[in-house]
Amino acid sequence: MHQVASIDWKAIREDFPILREQAHGHPLIYFDSAATSQKPRAVLDALRNYYEHENANVHRGLHELSSRATEAYEKSRQRVASYLNAPNANEIVFTRGTTESINLVAQAWGAKFLRDGDVVLLTEMEHHSNLVPWQLLAERTGAHLRFVPVCDDGTLALDRLSSLLTPEVKLFAFTHVSNSLGTINPVRELCEKARAVGALTLVDAAQSAGHMPIDVRELDCDFLAFSGHKMCGPTGIGALYGRAEILDSMPPWHGGGEMIVSVTLEKSAFKKAPHRFEAGTPNIAGAIGLAAAIDYIERIGRSAIFEHDAQLAGYAIERLAELSAHPHDLTTFADQYGLAMRGGHHCNQPLMRRFGLPGTTRASFYFYNTKEEIDRMIEILHAAARFFS
Amino acid sequence: MTPELEELYQEVILDHSRRPRNFGDLPNAAVRVHGDNPACGDEIHLGVKFGTGGELQDIKFTGHGCAISQASASLMTAKLKGKSRAEAMEMLRAFHDLVTDEMAEAPKMLGDLGVMQGVRKFPQRVKCAMLAWRAVEQALQQSAGQATISTETEFVTS
User: Fold this and answer.
1) Is A336 within 8 Å of B4 when comparing Cβ atoms?
2) Which residues pair with A172 in a beta bridge?
């Protein structure tokens, strides 16, 4: 791990071929990494190398290539486990991303363990991906949803926790970092309080996994979900961490090849976790690309990345004045100058309603962004403010 | 200022978005339609009163949204007042073509609605421009009562 000051952040930009692109004739300023991050050459090379030298199906071929593919795929699982400091690689299930990881828990765990009258506790700041799966589950099981309110300053109303965390709560699912507000929630404290009433915990780490150190043993959560594409990895790959004993107690959710021990026409016996939850040919290349992304991120260091991102955000907030333009107009305007931001509700419709906003324009930074880009953003925003006033 | 932005946000559009015409409640409306664009958070409440011949005697709106959706609603209400149902439907179709079809010429009947033509270069903004028109389409279909429409109708389940 490096000190933030000793890292040549400008040189890091050279690792990302796409940052040389132009948009509408202007140099691209990519401020939408909270939606998806850009990919360094190391990840692109890993994908190419896999398809050129290792591509075969995993866990079944008795030939050399299949061994290579299986080894690379399972090594990637170990890499994810070490990245999260999970005790065992068997506690890592590969999924398509955060959304699928949460749906896996809602369907496999929820179907078996949730009863009429049970409660799933969420927060008002959840992304739709950590809300809709629970709504569907509640409809199927008769369970209820409860929500920790969000204060005016964008933090969770922690003083309400003790009245919300009653013995009926079987699971507390919450985001680590809010994708709209940037709020960093006190995960360890929340997990501890949930455990005290016997509730399991699920952490949505979509916005944190590539931005700060994560240690599931220290956080002491039961599940943790994240996506590869928001942390320099390819799209279509992510993972679910789950405590081994909990994963092994859960029934399969998708049926098919890879997840069985034996099959007759009448019934099947299933493998243990994680393979029980990975029916069909998995996203082998994606898992390998994710491991390459983890290697890349760890070479820079997650603490350094966190510090760098925080410095950029602090600088931007300092320079931003109040603007009165609709997020949609602002985002369209900025795009014409090569500035890619996200405008809208950010899959946070209830949260937008909570703050009485039609939506927002979000500039989200990653370690390849610079202060100069923020200066340019401020210029563009001032021009927009003049135009729409 | 880029030419695309100048075409999208013409002075007439900015003027209508800052000072929307026919903005307010229509107390004796025959139909009230609540239009919702969940993708943008834009909302419109449209009231329509029909005359003895079935024409759109009065039409007003409230709500909030981006410059395009506000200007579109303002321009639309000004244009549709006094028009027959058939004329209104014809304008709806012509307006939709105007903001979606690269080749469409602005027909004469649309008059100053032609300023919305720049939207066609911004496919993500078509729903903003169409929100008020979708609401009026619903109003024409039901003639009385209340309704809610959404630009994402195809995705909404019961």
Assistant:
1) yes
2) A121, A201
